[in-house]
Amino acid sequence: MIVNKAIYREGRREDIDGDISDAVDAARDQGRCFVWIGMHEPTAEEFALVSDELMLHPLAVEDAVHAHQRPKLERYDDTLFVVLKTLEYRDATSDIEVGEIMLFVGADFVVSVRHGTANPLAPVRRRLDSDGELMGFGPTSVLYAVLDEVVDHYGQVAHEVEVDIIELERGVFAPEGPDVIADIYSLKREVLEFRSAEDPLIPVLQEIVRGKFPECRGTLEYFRDVLDHLLRVDQQVDAHNELLTSVLSAHLALLGKQQNEDMRKISSWAAIIAVPTAIAGIYGMNFDHMPELKWRIGYPLVICVMVSACILVYRRLRKSGWL
Amino acid sequence: MIVNKAIYREGRREDIDGDISDAVDAARDQGRCFVWIGMHEPTAEEFALVSDELMLHPLAVEDAVHAHQRPKLERYDDTLFVVLKTLEYRDATSDIEVGEIMLFVGADFVVSVRHGTANPLAPVRRRLDSDGELMGFGPTSVLYAVLDEVVDHYGQVAHEVEVDIIELERGVFAPEGPDVIADIYSLKREVLEFRSAEDPLIPVLQEIVRGKFPECRGTLEYFRDVLDHLLRVDQQVDAHNELLTSVLSAHLALLGKQQNEDMRKISSWAAIIAVPTAIAGIYGMNFDHMPELKWRIGYPLVICVMVSACILVYRRLRKSGWL
Amino acid sequence: MIVNKAIYREGRREDIDGDISDAVDAARDQGRCFVWIGMHEPTAEEFALVSDELMLHPLAVEDAVHAHQRPKLERYDDTLFVVLKTLEYRDATSDIEVGEIMLFVGADFVVSVRHGTANPLAPVRRRLDSDGELMGFGPTSVLYAVLDEVVDHYGQVAHEVEVDIIELERGVFAPEGPDVIADIYSLKREVLEFRSAEDPLIPVLQEIVRGKFPECRGTLEYFRDVLDHLLRVDQQVDAHNELLTSVLSAHLALLGKQQNEDMRKISSWAAIIAVPTAIAGIYGMNFDHMPELKWRIGYPLVICVMVSACILVYRRLRKSGWL
Amino acid sequence: MIVNKAIYREGRREDIDGDISDAVDAARDQGRCFVWIGMHEPTAEEFALVSDELMLHPLAVEDAVHAHQRPKLERYDDTLFVVLKTLEYRDATSDIEVGEIMLFVGADFVVSVRHGTANPLAPVRRRLDSDGELMGFGPTSVLYAVLDEVVDHYGQVAHEVEVDIIELERGVFAPEGPDVIADIYSLKREVLEFRSAEDPLIPVLQEIVRGKFPECRGTLEYFRDVLDHLLRVDQQVDAHNELLTSVLSAHLALLGKQQNEDMRKISSWAAIIAVPTAIAGIYGMNFDHMPELKWRIGYPLVICVMVSACILVYRRLRKSGWL
Amino acid sequence: MIVNKAIYREGRREDIDGDISDAVDAARDQGRCFVWIGMHEPTAEEFALVSDELMLHPLAVEDAVHAHQRPKLERYDDTLFVVLKTLEYRDATSDIEVGEIMLFVGADFVVSVRHGTANPLAPVRRRLDSDGELMGFGPTSVLYAVLDEVVDHYGQVAHEVEVDIIELERGVFAPEGPDVIADIYSLKREVLEFRSAEDPLIPVLQEIVRGKFPECRGTLEYFRDVLDHLLRVDQQVDAHNELLTSVLSAHLALLGKQQNEDMRKISSWAAIIAVPTAIAGIYGMNFDHMPELKWRIGYPLVICVMVSACILVYRRLRKSGWL
């Protein structure tokens, strides 16, 4: 579905009402202006209308329609083809939802294809509308603005993950905290997915910054800024991954410690109750000649002994830290 | 065994009835056409017929007959020799079966040698038959089509592994789930085997994409596309490997937690039953002077005390989460 | 907030009273002198006054105001922009506090921006005041002196971490030591944060030492010295990280060993007390014909048997190391 | 000890009876032929006879006599000095025995020095005797043939290790299998030793294949073939290493699971026997007024209650999977 | 403290009695001879005497006085500055003591500075005295000889560590072996320290061998030999590190196994003693009508039943491997 079509003329945007091909032709004739066509999960047929007009490469077209690509930047003749993963943090479930954005960046056009619910293009459009200078760099400015927006959002998601980890830590180190093993594991999974979204983007941006793509050379400093933010996110994601492994190890150690303490507590109580039971057993024997049984104070005495023994054992265990 | 021999003339296929050498000579004379000979687990003798005719290098011939090679691409004079691992997922056993395909790609011939049951060449032939343009690139198009098919199939196998992992996760985190340790381990083994099949292919494709092999230069974009899919598979396999390690750790932690809970439950019941036993022991003593024993309500009273004590202990343990 | 403004003229410092722009113009005219403006957590407005005057790049300005950047060195036209993390060890909590310093280093000015409480710039100023020769290298000498001070401080923090680890080790290997799992984990977290502060600085210094920045070429040996200290810190941090993983593993193993020993001790005492209980049970049976019950020495005999049995069991368990 | 001396003239071998120096001089004069001297653990004196004659470099000579070198290839003037580790799998103990072969390869001589019991040179000699064409490449052909033989043998040892791992897996996953922890560890040790033998050989062969040594350029394809087999072995060794870590983790998890099941089983039986004990305790009390004690059917009734209670508890535990 | 000063003239050594500066001037005039000044933990003042005379770079001087540097090789004008870590194995405590040696290598002088107790320079001097040829390479020969001695000693320390590991393995796998967890951990620490001493030396030697320092070019083969030994040590240290991790894992698994076996043994004995206790409890009940109590053979019969039951249970448990 085409969700957006506009022509950007000297930094100002005008919606295209009529045919795309007319607009593109017009853009080509005038120079210094370009067309941006935005699509959302287009079918092969819908996309064919656009790709035929702009003569996009069939391999790139196939990728754009089917999605599930790896983040990458490829040149097909005069067109750059970029694939990005968008991440969206869902508060309710602590899940990270992965979407995709593909961009075809030509000399006088940009085609954007979105898959999934995330829509980072709206803020991009607002920014471009308000920043005429940036817009002056032509289609490359769209590429920059989308990358900047997507990577900035990575930073926010990384922050949410950080918050989740701190939550987990609190659970792990609280006495009788909630059961967090499944949460640790599922966050680990999210972090791995996060990494598979952002990691392949690093070499892409490094190539741009090294000046491999002539169309980006005028805005190198901007792309370097994005790369820098991406590297920061990447470092955070690696640290999160390592932290989650550590937190699970710490949890394992705490469980072991807990179990040992429980065992000691249980055994202590068992020891305390075993003493009167053993004494009672002795005076429950049926020997004819057990003088204590005849004593008047025999019974209260033995009760006293039992209680004293219990208290004694209790105190010793308390002192040795078992209770 | 020769399972297939055909001559591809200007994108159209014709079966070869007669002698191979005649067909190859004919192909050489006409130009723009090539011969494809397909073999399945040939004996040294069967293969000698073909290799002598096409003057294949003895080291490559030995590799092709004995199989169990590492994925690689090597040049011997004018011939490229490619070894690929094919993977086949067996639903019944969740096993991954490994086969091998070797390709000799010369200027006017292709020799393919299959080992194992997997047969990715059938769909390759269908695709080539229907795509005359691709066929126009000559023998290189066969190389591309086989690589594309094999790597695509890697993607499907990776998906099956993903499904298996999700199944395992469900087992691990379900209360009283099935015993999954052996399954985790055997999947880990499969993943390592998977990696040893796909990982060495990456530098091979990178060399092609960097333009090291002149015969592939016309179709670089196609090979780049295959490389891209392969990198995606590689990333998935790495993630699977890491996930399986994590899932085993999580399982270990859950076992520890489970054991601790079981121990607490067991100890709780032991404590509950220890109370009446101790009381009964006391009133089983044979002292002459135990006034309670004479009381009429002694017996019902002590039963009441026992029951109350049990309930009391039960409630406390319930509250502290041990029961 | 501007906390410091001075002009360094031939190695001597003079405070600037008047307008910054006048001072910068004066510095430009005279040559061989430069202005240093120091700021602490400036607002965007405060910073605009300086950045407009010195024509700093807007991307760098944004980074300087918002902080939370990755350590880096970037060139914007004639200005170097450096971001450093400062670390401060808090004795009370064993926490490492992270701050940030940004430097804009131009031909005739230095702008420093501090975020956080750490203030390494005071000793830097003292050192520069007393070392005229170093000062002769111009603004680059400030860059060197700040890097040297910050990296030296890393070394001190690494030493504090080392001390903390030794403390932890003592806790882990002491019998009945304190609970250190949470401490190990939180130190691990600190170490990861440490690494994310110092690690990205290594390539920055390597680029300087390789001579990528012409303005630093006169002082290469000084920067090489800083790099060397940084590499030493980096190695220490890596070793700390690995040690903390090992110490947790060792703790886990010790817990397992402890638990086993506790279980043996508990079971031993249970065995010792089970013997008299069983004997008492036997003589508590109500058979009419149990000759021992009639014996005069029956009762003292059975008590002797009980005690002897207890001693016997105790000795055997002692010998086998269970008690 | 000199165990072998021969002159290879145009692919045919002749034993040398007389003096080595005469033979070497003869070889030098005739061209296209070379001398091969084979030694086994020579003393410094024995070796001096040869090394003085051929003017071998003293550092290489020292290495050759003392053994315990790292696999390497070094050039000393016109002589290549190669160190290889030989591996021998001992079936009886599942041990891998490490030996060493050093080769001095000059323009018209080869000196081989063996340490340890492994003797891969015998098959090498047979192969060279029967393959005149290979022999035509001169001393380099000996280098190739030895490398090929040694690396091929690595492959066989890797296969034996694979078999041992499968054996271990069977032990780990069999219920009540043998104790395999020590075996896993000692195999891990063997694998590490294996890796330290084969891993340093990879860069050696890569240098040869990249054409760094002019004397090997005529046989590059042969060395590439050896490198290929070596890379395959290397990959297998890495996989074995990873598998052994996994198998130990799996074993640990299984032990935990086993322990939990045992604990449940033990507790279940304790619970079953605790019920009649408690009931018996109650009716062992000495209250005067316990009406049930007077009933004729009291005793059989209470026995029935006991048995029923046991059966009830047994069934419940069975159902919940504890028994 | 200056512990040694000598002039080496054409490979022969003469002690310097008088002033250092005279000796250095003499060496400069004569050519082909050089001065070696050896110091041990000099104070800044002591060192200033030497460094002023030879015009050593202040940064290097600071490093030499304060020690605790990273192993490195740096050029300051015409002087090479080398920092090495010396390792000393203490048999009594199995500790590795770390010292430091710094060398200033100029065209006609060598200054060596030792920190710590290790003294590898004495054997170096003996070797140089006896090897006039080596000495002919001038100050570089001292650099080589010190590196060779230090790295050789690394090899001996690595061997001691190997011996310690084998000792630990014996402890781990012996039934009821000593407690080795603290030993494993402390050896791990030693190995990490070892690595931080030898690992940074590798790139230093690789740079020398690649010919980066013209003064070492005449003796490249000697330095290559040292590098080779260093790589061997590095590989051993890595293997030791990995082995220690494995041995701790194996120990953990053995502890788990041991605990399970202990638990089974304990439970078995508890089961055996529970049977007579339960039977005794039944015949301790006070029912009026318990016919067995009246039987003459009641008591011996029930004792027989108890003993038989115990034997029966014992046998079953024995058979199932629990006892």
TrEMBL record, chains A, B, C, D, E:
Superkingdom as given in the UniProt entry: Bacteria
Does this UniProt record's set of keywords contain Magnesium? yes
User: Which Pfam families does this entry report, sorted A to Z?
Assistant: CorA (PF01544)
Which reaction equations make up its catalytic activity?
Mg(2+)(in) = Mg(2+)(out)
- Please provide the record's keywords in A-Z order: Cell membrane, Ion transport, Magnesium, Membrane, Transmembrane, Transmembrane helix, Transport
Where found, per UniProt? Cell membrane
Keyword Membrane appears in the UniProt entry? yes
Instruction: Cite a single GO MF annotation.
Output: cobalt ion binding
Please report the record's description of how this protein sits within the membrane: Multi-pass membrane protein
TM stretches of this protein: 266-285, 297-314
Which parts of the chain are coiled coil? none
* One Gene Ontology cellular component: plasma membrane
Purpose of the protein: Mediates influx of magnesium ions. Alternates between open and closed states. Activated by low cytoplasmic Mg(2+) levels. Inactive when cytoplasmic Mg(2+) levels are high.
Task: Tell me its family.
Answer: Belongs to the CorA metal ion transporter (MIT) (TC 1.A.35) family.
Protein name, UniProt field: Magnesium transporter
